[in-house]
Amino acid sequence: MQSPPFDFDYLRSLVREHSAVVLEPYKDYLAALYLGKLAAQNGFESIAPFIDHLKNIPFGDLHLQTVEALMINETSFFRDRYPFTSLQSLVLPTLIQARSQQKTINIWCAACSTGQEPYSIAILIRQHFPELADWKIRLTASDFSKQALDRAKQGQYTNLEVNRGLPPTLRDRYFYPVGRAWQLRDEIRKMVEFQQLNLIQSWASLPKLDILFLRNVLIYFDIETKRSILDKVQQYLQPDGYLFLGGGETIFHVDSRFETIQNKTSLYHRIRGA
To answer: CA nearest 162: which of 88, 246, 78, 87?
Structure first.
């Protein structure tokens, strides 16, 4: 039986207003995929009457749950490899030398989804940089979605999730089996501070940043929102800090204040002239 038509334009407006994410008109399949369960939990037979209900009640938690459900939470451990190779071979060694007096490094993973990215950074630091044991390493991870953050804080992943990018040696060292899942050990889990944060709202809870992972995020925004976010990046990133974007993302025609630096093992962005 075919589902009745639903007002996807309303959902696009809802998501745009509260997250700045632009859902293309052809992505109505996202609603079909991800809203059915939420509609059923709230007593609706299909998403069409559920959306009609949203349109006729004051904005509240149900609307936020709907926006969260439509967010794309694609992530994996050590995703794309090159940012982590850069961290290990160049970025962290350089910052360790530059911050030797302060002994403080601030890292932020924005739009961290279910936590694999910040935990990958934490594992890399623990595995390769024992000299940072007495440093203050503030590793902040944020996401728009409370549901994703709740999973991230738990630090428990399925076999499929740990097998996507995580070498067995690291899995066995930093995780332990719980039934059919893998639980991250507290020594790594406690290295990450999670907070709910909407990128288009205030960043006041963040410190000045030495490293910013803003990967595979800007592609979901229009040009003006990208520029607004990069304005904040320029304010919060240390002059000698490092910005990592997704492998297919570019800001060359968006903000000339940043330059892209690429070599055999690294691809990152810095404030021009730093």
So the answer is: 78
E-strand stretches of the chain: 104-109, 136-143, 156-158, 175-178, 181-184, 192-196, 209-213, 237-244, 258-262, 267-271
Q: How far is CA 51 from CA 9, 20, 114, 126, in A?
A: 11, 19, 26, 46
The single residue listed with the structure tokens 């060359």 is 252
Displacement of CA 73 from its chain's centroid (Å): 8
Smallest CA-to-CA distance from 72 within 139, 145, 167, 151 is with: 145
Predicted TM-score (pTM) of this structure: 0.88
Contacts 24+ apart (CB under 8 A), 31-36: 31/6, 31/70, 32/3, 34/69, 34/70, 35/66, 35/69, 35/70
> What confidence tens digit (pLDDT) does each residue in 123-170 have?
999 999 999 999 999 999 999 888 899 999 999 999 999 999 999 999
Token readout for 162 is: 């740990």
CA nearest to 256, candidates 227, 228, 235: 227
Structure tokens at 256: 């000339």
Confidence of residue 78 (pLDDT cuts 50, 70, 90): very high
Beta strands in 29-133 (DSSP E): 104-109
Q: What is the CA radius of gyration of the chain?
A: 20
Q: What is the pLDDT of residue 20?
A: 84
Taking only the tens place, the pLDDT of each residue in 130-139 is 999 999 999 9
